[in-house]
Amino acid sequence: MSGQKKRLPFTVSRNDGRKLVVQVVDGLKKAIARGYYKPGDTLHASRELAPMLGVSRIVTAAALRRLADEGWVDARPRIGSVVRDRSAKQWRGRVVMAFPDGYDNYLQTVLAAELRETLLHEGYLFEEAIVKRAAGGYDFSNIEVALSQSTDLAVSMYARKEIMDFFAGRGVPYAVFGEVARRPARAVGVTRIDFNKAVPDFVAACGAAGVKRVIEVSWFAGMCGVVGALKKAGIAAQKMRIDVDTSKGRFFAVRKAGMDTFARLIAAGRLSRESLYFFSDDYLASGALAALSYAGFKSPQDIRIATWANAGLGPVYPRELSRMELDPVGTAKEVSSAVTAYLKTGVYPSSVVGAKWIPGETMAATTKEAR
Predict the structure, then answer these.
(1) Which of 60, 116, 215, 227 is deepest in the core (most CB within 10 A)?
(2) Backbone angles phi, psi at 18, to 5 degrees
(3) pLDDT, tens digit, 9 for 90 and up, residues 270-301
(4) How many whole angstroms separate alpha carbon 49 and alpha carbon 37?
(5) Considering the domain 93-194 in this protein, what is its CATH number?
(6) Residue 63: per-residue pLDDT
(7) 300-347, pLDDT tens digit by residue?
(8) What CATH class is the domain 3-83?
């Protein structure tokens, strides 16, 4: 029976926290894995799915393309997306990337795209599986669907113990990408990301520039931290934590929180011209820079600034920002190379990735200090 005659067994929600494309993909995968759609069934076309789910056709077209890329359906001209027989051997193997809900970001998007492209070229299926939080822990139903067939390797993002234990308990070989001090006993390898890798160079730059006080601005505890290292070097430092309501979209909310916070500081005359502000998040920095520019503040003339940044993403400023810059593309290629090496040799080459310090122009002495 054609899948086009069936009602959709799921809905999407803009309050879910996951991207709409991810929700559509996960919903269709579960429907296929549970037998609601059977091999040979034709799914609704993207133009039909869009109004049924209340999303744009761009979202549904992207979801169907991903299902085809991951081997769940065959995209047939003039017919549509036909559900594959998942028991048939059509690929050399499969790799699953699992990540906890709420941690989708630019680096993860670049990494997933690089893995998908590389692995499909090598003849391997690649799937993403989001792990949603549930009462008392995590909901692993999306991973269960992804593991409905034999999996050669799982990549556990951000080193969450519960997710790693899940793979280990099912005997699935897994590698870790995240902040870990050492390789977990049952993992095949680790690509360790060190968000503080460039901190020593930043501290040295502060000393060379005569910085007397640094205010670290952040909104999330898991970001780069500079206060401890600065204090050890004899430089006064304090934290400024900004509350962010991410219920309606994280990236916009973080930028707006940065802008609103600094607009209030400026209006209240509480902006410290004698301090250097270090932003541990690039979106937070973008918002704060907008508020500073609107109020006529320039860096480094009026205020010193340094920030975390992603190469190719920003933030953007008229002067080159002094920054700890992570290269998402280079990091993605390193992880992809390690995954490919494991699939070919059985050995996952562990490594450490992180940001590098770029001096920029926004840490020079302010006009007041120069006089």
Answers:
(1) 60
(2) -90, 155
(3) 999 899 999 999 999 999 999 999 999 999 99
(4) 15
(5) 3.40.50.2300
(6) 93
(7) 999 999 999 999 888 999 999 999 999 999 999 999 999 999 999 999
(8) mainly alpha
How far apart CA 120 and CA 339 sit, in angstroms, is 13
CATH number of 199-325+357-370: 3.40.50.2300
| Mean pLDDT score, 107-131 | 89
Reduce the secondary structure of the chain to three states and give it as a string: CCHHHCCCCCCCCCCCCCCHHHHHHHHHHHHHHCCCCCCCCECCCHHHHHHHHCCCHHHHHHHHHHHHHCCCEEEECCCEEEECCCCCCCCCEEEEEEEECCCCCHHHHHHHHHHHHHHHHHCEEEEEEEEEEECCEEECHHHHHHCCCCCCEEEEECCCHHHHHHHHHCCCCEEEEECCCCCCCCCCEEEEEECCCCHHHHHHHHHHCCCCEEEEEECCCCCCCCHHHHHHCCCEEEEEECCCCCCCCHHHHHHHHHHHHHHHHHHCCCCCCCCEEEECCHHHHHHHHHHHHHCCCCCCCCCEEEEEEECCCECCCCCCCEEEEECHHHHHHHHHHHHHHHHHHCCCCCEEEECEEECCCCCCCCHHHHC
pTM over 0.70: yes
Tokens of 195: 């968000």
The answer to whether the CB of 276 falls within 8 A of the CB of 214 is yes
190-230 pLDDT tens trace: 999 999 999 999 999 999 999 999 999 999 877 899 999 99
